[in-house]
Amino acid sequence: MAGRNKEPIDLIIAKGKKHLTKDEIEQRRKEELDVPTDMIEAPDYLTKKQRDSFDEIARMLIDLNIMTNLDCDALAGYIVARDGWILAGKKLRTKAVKDDPNAFDKWTKIEDRYRKQMRSAATDLGLTITSRGKIVAPVKNEPPPPKNKFAIFAGGGS
Q: Which of 66, 90, 122, 127 places its Cα 20 to 30 Å from the Cα of 76?
């Protein structure tokens, strides 16, 4: 039986559902992977247009605190598969392919292969609605809000 995925300590703290000692929090932080994000750049094998797409999507993933240096080839794979899928779709709409059942069948299979590759990569990267819902992204450390000294009078506890 598989257990639950381990959540980053900052997410646990943000949820406020688990009471940990300072020592437990420090120990969990030491155990967590800290993958850098200082060298995220489009691989050289991408075209100029693909590098532009890479930069645009990478920027969004970095803002969501999801992408690291280790994800560059995964994102590049998504972009290459997406371009192949688009190209195959365009080919399917040409008159020559529409009028030739063999060519239509061939390009339909190619389009489907690229779509599956693209979908798989998109899921891994959190580019689909359902995959984003499953991602446990580290929460940026933000100081807790200051205690309101008047909360006790409003029934907010001590």
A: 90
